[in-house]
Each structure stands twice: as structure tokens, then as C-alpha cells.
Design a protein that fits this description.
This is Glyoxalase. This protein is α+β, with helices and mostly antiparallel strands. It is built from 2 helices and 9 strands, in the order E-H-E-E-E-E-H-E-E-E-E. The protein is globular and about 45 Å long.
């Protein structure tokens, strides 16, 4: 798997949504010992812990966390990000098996190609492929001390 400085090396990355990314990130660092890896404006942060990582994202801004059932307006607070070798092939497989696609495979300036979907249980998933190693500073990311 291609490495990318803009993406944690972990294969499975939980995505946790909070109303205030800054406050939540600070609390997770202080209370649980996470370390800031990368901050992306005020809507997303990557926190490291040993060999693992979590992504903290803004609750109201993450459309992949919104269900389209009776609780349509109630955002999800949790999703899973999984790094894969070929996001387009993975997307085709997910569609074949009935995943509800929330966003089609898209290449982003931070060096990742990603798509998001919902499984039959309503859980949010983002699958991500590193397509180029981009220094976070080159696209506006702010690198933490860790």
C-alpha cells in the first residue's frame, strides 16, 4: 500500500464526530493520551495513539454520517475508515452487494481517493486509497507535534 503523509498508516481508522472538533481533540489528547497528528482547518483532525489513529470530524458537516430513514435529520456520531489498495474496485464490489453509496469515488488534493457508503445496518463507511504522497502543508494541513 502506498504511504501518504496526509493519511494515518493504520488500515482501519475510526471516524468520530463531535460538535466542536477542537474541543473534542483536546479532550481526547488530555484524557486518553492521544496526540495530534494533523489538523485540517476547524472541521477535521487526525489523532495518533501508538500504531493506531482516529479521525475527529465535525458532527454537522459529515454527510456520510446522516441516515436516510426515519431518523433522517439525526446525524451519526461514528463511522469507520478503511484503507484499501484499489478504491474503484472496492466501490464496484460494494455496489454489487447492495451498499448505499453516499459519495462516489473521488480524488482529493490530500492524496487520497475515497468513497463513502452505508451498510444494511445503517453504519457509515469510508474507503480510502492513497494515490500520491502529499505533504500536508502543501494542501493546507497543519501538522501536529507527533
Amino acid at each position: 500500500m502506498l504511504g501518504n503523509r496526509s493519511m494515518p498508516a493504520s488500515t482501519v481508522i475510526p471516524v468520530l464526530s463531535y460538535p466542536d472538533v477542537g474541543k473534542a481533540s483536546l479532550w481526547l489528547c488530555q484524557a486518553f493520551g492521544f496526540e495530534l497528528r494533523l489538523r485540517i482547518a476547524n472541521h477535521r483532525a487526525q489523532l495518533g495513539f501508538g500504531e493506531g489513529a482516529v479521525v475527529v470530524t465535525e458532527l454537522k458537516a459529515d454527510k456520510s454520517m446522516v441516515r436516510e430513514d426515519a431518523e433522517q435529520d439525526r446525524p451519526r456520531r461514528f463511522a469507520v475508515m478503511v484503507r484499501v489498495e484499489d478504491v474503484d474496485a472496492h466501490h464496484r464490489r460494494a455496489v454489487l452487494h447492495g451498499a448505499v453509496i453516499l459519495s462516489e469515488p473521488t480524488s482529493y488534493p490530500y492524496g487520497e481517493r475515497q468513497y463513502s457508503c452505508r451498510d444494511p445496518g445503517g453504519h457509515g463507511w469510508t474507503f480510502s486509497q492513497s494515490i500520491v504522497d502529499i505533504a500536508p502543508e502543501d494542501w493546507g494541513g497543519i501538522v501536529g507535534k507527533a
